[in-house]
Design goal:
The complex is a heterodimer of chains A (about 250) and B (about 325). Chain A is about 35% helix and about 25% strand. In chain A, helix 3 (about 95-105) crosses helix 4, helix 3 packs parallel to helix 5 and helix 5 runs parallel beside helix 6. Chain A folds into 2 domains: about 1-80 and about 165-245, 3-Layer(aba) Sandwich (Rossmann fold), CATH 3.40.50.300; about 85-165, no CATH class. The longest helix of chain A has 14 residues, at about 180-190. Chain A has 9 helices and 10 strands. The mean pLDDT of chain A is about 90. In chain B, about 75% of the residues lie in helices and about 0% in strands. Chain B has a two-stranded antiparallel ribbon with strand order 1-2. Chain B is built from 14 helices and 2 strands. Chain B has helices spanning about 1-35, 40-60, 70-85, 90-115, 120-140, 165-185, 190-200, 200-205, 210-240, 250-260, 270-285, 290-305, 310-315, 315-320, and strands spanning about 155, 160. The chains are: A alpha/beta (about 250), B mainly alpha (about 325). The interface between A and B is medium-sized, with 38 and 27 residues. Adenosine-5'-triphosphate (ATP) binds near residues 12, 17, 39, 40 and 41 of chain A. Magnesium ion binds near residues 41, 42 and 84 of chain A.
């Protein structure tokens, strides 16, 4: 178990957005978190990465209690997230975007006396990541000029640059065309061979394809949890969520 | 596609040539300036230009609007003046003391202010700098309303007599160029890259493991130290340090200079400072009230040139043809 939560809860001014959520994310597995809009999926992500402080519950990352740890520290411990709305550095190039992630682990983030060319030694690794995700031809394109799908791919490349132990992806395929969805799905399946992935995804055929475990969230609480087959047979889930989808 | 690449790269080298030519022209102008204008006037411009550039390091490159930079500028002026007058240090040591003092003040104010956003940040920096102002009014070593008067200019490295105007001028020019050089390097460094990423997407930068508050604090202290460099220099040029330099109006003035010239550009604050100082100089001998006129100029500029003079030039058709890109 690399990441687990027990009794996770969050209240916003009297409104309970998340309640009693238990999660176990395992190494080399893809864990999908699904549920209708407003179910609390993004809030769970914010709680796990400590962008929000939980009202209740405990979070363990690699046998360490991270319930009170700051979000930047969480990232340094190996739990890295993406955001529901694409989060790139728009006016930096694709290469620079990935290099931002590489700078800190390579101890090239605080030098204010060195020229920018000192970052060039990060280029080989950055180019490798860019190539892995098929962005080579956009190396020097500013992120803002990329298509939406490629922005999301760039975001994954940037995240992978940190070589995280646990990857949290918030709707990585939302707003993508069919072709891009297949590409990104295979990228995710690939990276999950060596690390744990927890992803929020609305596209159920992708979830059925690549997820090893599915947790269904509704109104902030867990409705069902198990493999896709079991969960999709669950009558409550069918009426509450999947019934409306099909 | 190849065509487009070709055009951009040739425009790019064209712009680089142009920039080099412009830089050399400016340098020649600065070397000749004391023989063409009243030297102390040019020195005043250089001090304020450096101050504005230091301020812009914070506003233009991290997005923090400080309303308390007078504390660093004026504080350093006091520290330098005190060191030189009471302890008899040489000018370069005096200035370093001023810079260190300003950096220390910057660290204290920064630690308190850096977690606030937007208007709260401006308000808290204003409040803290006002506290420092009242400290300067009250404490004995700053001599209250009188300030520290008749500060000796001294001998640079114990050798070069700064009472000789040309010596003084070239010392000021050298410090100015060093200061601008430091700012340029700071912005175009690995650290500057992280500052840029924070400005572009703070949450994402946090999620990549950066303790963003520390980077912001670093930029704040650097900005304060460089504002202190300008303040210490000014104390030596004018041979005094007074309450004017720590008053909130001074914080307002540097905002005016920076916005007028254009934030986020290297040259903008320099142009803005030159304009404001020239304007003040011209108006000082006329019957127009200086503050009202500068206020009107400011309003006109904000309404007409939202990016500031240099920013508008970069964004104009001519500026773009020359290969400049407006900073984002
Ligand atoms: N910062 C906040 N303050 C107050 N309420 C919030 C906050 N963040 C989320 N909420 C509320 O919590 C509930 C869950 O929101 P959340 O964004 O986690 O849902 P979600 O499952 O990610 O939905 P979607 O599929 O639309 O992304 C919603 O009702 C939302 O309005
Ligand atoms: Mg969401």
């Amino acid at each position: 178990m690399v990441l687990s939560a027990r009794g996770l809860g969050k209240d916003f001014a009297g409104f309970t957005a998340v309640n009693g959520v238990d999660l176990d994310v395992e190494h080399a597995r893809i864990h999908a978190l699904i549920g209708p809009n407003g179910a609390g999926k993004t809030t769970v992500f914010n709680l796990l990465t400590k962008f929000l402080q939980p009202t209740r519950g405990r979070i363990m990352l690699l046998d360490q209690d991270i319930t009170k740890v700051k979000p930047d520290k969480i990232a340094r411990m190996g739990l890295v997230r993406s955001f529901q709305i694409s989060a790139v550095f728009p006016h930096l190039t694709v290469l620079e975007n990935v290099r931002i992630a590489l700078q800190r682990p390579n101890k090239l983030a605080t030098q204010f006396w060195l020229p920018l060319s000192s970052l060039d030694k990060l280029n080989p690794r950055a180019e490798e990541l860019i190539a892995d995700l098929g962005l080579s031809q956009y190396r020097d394109t500013r992120a803002t000029d990329l298509s939406y799908g490629r922005k999301r791919v760039l975001e994954i490349a940037t995240t992978l640059a940190l070589d995280p132990k646990v990857l949290l992806l918030d709707e990585p395929m939302a707003g993508m065309g069919g072709e891009d969805v297949a590409t990104v799905a295979s990228i995710i399946a690939d990276v999950a061979k060596t690390r744990a992935v927890l992803m929020v995804e609305h596209n159920l055929s992708v979830v059925a394809d690549i997820a090893h475990h599915v947790t269904v969230l509704q109104r902030g609480e867990i409705l069902a949890s198990g493999d896709y087959e079991t969960v999709s047979q669950n009558p409550q889930v069918r009426t509450a969520y999947m019934g409306t989808e099909d | 596609m190849t065509d487009a690449t070709h055009t951009t790269s040739s425009t790019f080298t064209g712009a680089r040539h142009l920039r080099t030519v412009m830089l050399i022209a400016i340098l020649i102008f600065l070397i000749a300036a004391p023989f063409l204008f009243y030297p102390i006037f040019v020195m005043k411009i250089l001090c304020f230009a450096l101050f504005a550039a230091a301020f812009n390091l914070l506003l233009g490159y991290t997005g923090f609007l400080s309303f308390g930079h007078a504390a660093f500028f004026g504080g350093a002026a006091y520290f330098t003046a005190h060191a030189m007058k009471e302890w008899g240090t040489t000018p370069e040591v005096g200035i370093l003391i001023g810079v260190a003092g300003a950096a220390a003040l910057g660290l204290v104010i920064g630690l308190i202010a850096i977690r606030r956003q937007g208007i709260y940040f401006a308000m808290i920096t204003l409040a803290l700098s006002q506290m420092f102002f009242f400290y300067c009014v009250q404490s004995a070593w700053t001599h209250g309303e009188d300030g520290i008067q008749s500060v000796p200019r001294g001998h640079l490295f114990g050798l070069i007599d700064l009472n000789v105007t040309t010596n003084m001028y070239f010392f000021v020019l050298a410090v100015f160029l060093i200061g601008i050089g430091i700012i340029w390097r700071f912005v175009n460094s690995p650290f500057g890259m992280i500052l840029k990423s924070i400005r572009e997407n703070e949450q994402r930068t946090v999620s990549l493991g950066y303790a963003v508050d520390r980077y912001k604090l670093g930029a704040f202290v650097m900005s304060a130290a460089l504002a202190g460099l300008a303040g210490g220099l000014k104390a030596i040029v004018f041979e005094f340090a007074t309450l004017t330099d720590v008053a909130w109006q001074m914080s307002g003035e540097v905002i005016l200079m920076t916005l007028l010239g254009g934030i986020g550009t290297m040259i903008g604050p320099v142009v803005g400072a030159s304009l404001v100082v020239t304007l003040q100089n011209e108006l000082a001998t006329s019957d127009f009230p200086v503050t009202i006129v500068t206020g009107l100029v400011f309003m006109a500029c904000v309404l007409l040139f939202r990016r500031g003079l240099v920013g508008e030039f970069y964004a104009s058709r001519l500026g773009r043809r020359l290969g400049f890109r407006p900073e984002q």
